[in-house]
Amino acid sequence: MDPRLVTAIIVLVGVPAVLIGYIWLTEVVLRLVGERSRGSIRPWLWLAPALAFLTVFLVYPTIGTIIRSFQNKAGTSFIGIDNYSWFFSSDSALIALRNSLIWLVALTAITVGLGLLIALVVDRVRYETVAKTVIFVPLAISMVAASVIWTFMYYYITPPDPQVGTLNAALSTVGIPPVAWVQQSQFGFNSILLVIVMAWMWTGFAMVILSAALKGINPELLEAARVDGAREGQVFRYITLPLLAPTVAVVTTTMIITALKAFDIVYVMTNGNFDTQVVASLMYQQMTPSPGRASAIAVILLLAIVPVMALNIRRFRAQEAIR
Amino acid sequence: MTTPSERMAERAAGRPDARAAEERSGVRKVQGRRRSKLLSRLPLHLLIVFLMVVWLIPTIGLLVNSFRPPEEVTQSGWWTAFFKPSQFTLDNYAHVLAQQNITSGFINSLFIAIPSTVIPILVAAFAAYAFAWMSFPGRNLLFIFVVGLLVVPLQSTFIPLLQLFGPRGIGITGSFLVVWMAHTGYGLPFAIFLLRNFMGELPREVFESAAIDGASPVTAFLRLALPMTVPAIAALAIFQFLFTWNDLLVAIVYLGAQNPDNAPLTIAVSNLVSSLGGGWQYLAAAAFVTMAVPLVVFLALQRYFVRGIVGGSVKG
Which member of A130, A131, B109, B293 lies 3.0 to 4.6 Å from B264 by CB, making a disulfide possible if both were Cys? Predict the structure, then answer.
């Protein structure tokens, strides 16, 4: 038998058995301690495995990265803010920063805007389920697969070879010369082309959540406004939109984080060439040759996400308050 | 005229303004009413169909090419195949599935994704139960901390972890073990968040009466909380499975160059993109091999998936 299969079976049966065994064991141990302290020890025993994983894989390394970002390449001495000043003075890093901003703005605008539009229009037709599935399906596939699909859309081959990529083949059938799409770096045009790939995947996400919120609106509210003589535009502007606002905020924050973390599409489609590097892919590129700089890039990425994190926590506390 | 409750029922059935539109054109004859309704809704249908076509074209183009022979793929746009259907062939799939790195990548992806789904869910379930049904000092603060960890970019963890697990540390990079653990650690905040919110909504009386009957927390957890949380666990499992199956970043960082034998499909296919150049028919077939599993999972379990997404992001 394939040794990997044996390992997999051991893991699949063994790990859950060990974990459930662990929880049983905690009760046995708790019987040894006094009745009074049982209640205060028990939760920590239940949390221990999760806290161990969180500490090892998120808390410890994040602190480590922050410290590492002030160290030199080999990690042997502290060099102050040199890694950060490199970031803000290097052309390639500044282009990555600019592109990440393009990603953030364009991806959020396209997914939220288009997602809302689609949620609104499909709500009015009978084939809603089919339409929503078509828009939503790309979210299930990997970004690698999406990159392959779209590399083919944008594919360019030097003439006189016949163009076979969808866009260029379409152009050549109507006699327009082909365009090397992903190489068009002026004004970050090719970054936008990569954002479209991500938007193609994530618009369905925004649509599904907004559509659920839309169906949660009491139709009597809308009807009351119509009876009072409000036009459809007014009903949307003064009733539907304000009621959707909290959901739009949730989707927007999710999309901002998704945009900042975007890596796979750039890595597969251009590998950062033609000025398409973003902060997250630049970090990966610098990781081996220059861990100090890569750490600084990671910290910058983290800092960019902190405000969103704060918003998340605030919203969460507000929800808890009304529970 | 319809009553509001009837209208609501219609809305639920997905035909919100059929009646409203009819009401507005109340006095007109039935025939004219139908025609004008259809006409006024035509732009709506055109818009939706247009969007659906735009969404489908990229995939269909590649799908068609995955069934065409190389000499056709390099000569003409994929839609020309519809005028010459005799060219369709399964050779590309046969070729791709005969590639060592694709078949082993497929198995590796399964080896990575399944444990990476099971382990975090169990670990998270314990923690979620403690957060939902046990009281201890600092409970809310700790949970808020977990919510904060939800957004930490993975990039900010790689360098210290590679040092810890790398050849100069514990020396397990390149093994499945490190990928399972990494996916567990990275997936936990969302898993705890989702399960805790779901478990917190379970009726208090159930747990109180269980405690009165002398059930230990372990029994209450295994016999009550876990079975009642199955919908959330199902959503989470689909989510985590798709995430780990589709993952490229964690795999290249922790398996990466050290151990190509353990590389999942995502790595194999992303290597094909750079190495194959114009071999579109094979790349296309390989891409659809990677998509097969998520598409089946997604289309079969779409309802749970949607519920998980909606429940996870818009709570309350």
Answer: B109
Domain A91-144+187-321 -> CATH class: mainly alpha
CA A29 to chain CA mean position, Å: 42
Count residue pairs from A and B with Cβ separation < 8 A.
340
CB B126 to CB A19 under 8 A?
yes
B159 vs A144, A208, A295: nearest CB: A295
Q: What is the CA radius of gyration of chain A?
A: 26
| HSE, side-chain direction, 13 A CA sphere, residue A187 | 1
CA distance A286 to chain B (A): 11
Q: Do B61 and A135 touch (CB under 8 A)?
A: no
B-chain residues near A226 (CB < 8 A): 20
In chain B, % helix, strand, coil (3-state, to 5) comes to 80, 0, 20
- Nearest chain B CA: its distance from A219 CA (Å): 7
Query: In the prediction, which pLDDT does B4 show?
Result: 43
User: Both tokens of residue B120?
Assistant: 């975090």
Chain A contacts in chain B segment 101-160 (CB below 8 A): 107, 111, 114-115, 118-120, 122-124, 126-127, 129-131, 134-136, 139-140, 142, 144, 146-160
Structure tokens at A61: 């390394």
Rounded Cα distance, A297 and A303, in Å: 10
Q: Which residues of chain B make contact with A151, given a CB cutoff of 8 A?
A: 273
Residue A165 pLDDT greater than 80, yes or no: yes
Contact criterion met (CB below 8 Å) for B160 and A65: yes
Q: Provide the shortest C-alpha distance from residue A93 to chain B (in Å).
A: 16
A45 vs A42: CA distance, rounded Å: 5
Give the model's confidence band at B91: pLDDT under 50 very low, under 70 low, under 90 confident, else very high. confident
Of the candidate ranges A74-88, A305-319, B210-224, the one whose mean pLDDT is the lowest: A305-319
pLDDT in tens, B119-159: 999 999 999 999 999 989 999 999 999 988 988 999 999 99
**CA A13 to CA A301: how far, in whole Å?**
38
Helix (H/G/I), strand (E/B), else coil: A63: helix
* Domains assigned to chain B: 4-65 (no CATH), 94-313 (1.10.3720.10)
My answer on whether omega of the bond before B16 falls inside 30° of 0, hence cis, is no
Query: Considering only CB atoms, which chain B residues are within 8 Å of A308?
Result: 151
Which residues, at least 6 apart from B141, have a Cβ–Cβ distance to it below 8 Å?
none
ipTM of the shown complex: 0.89
Residues of A in contact with B287 (CB under 8 A): 144-145, 148-149
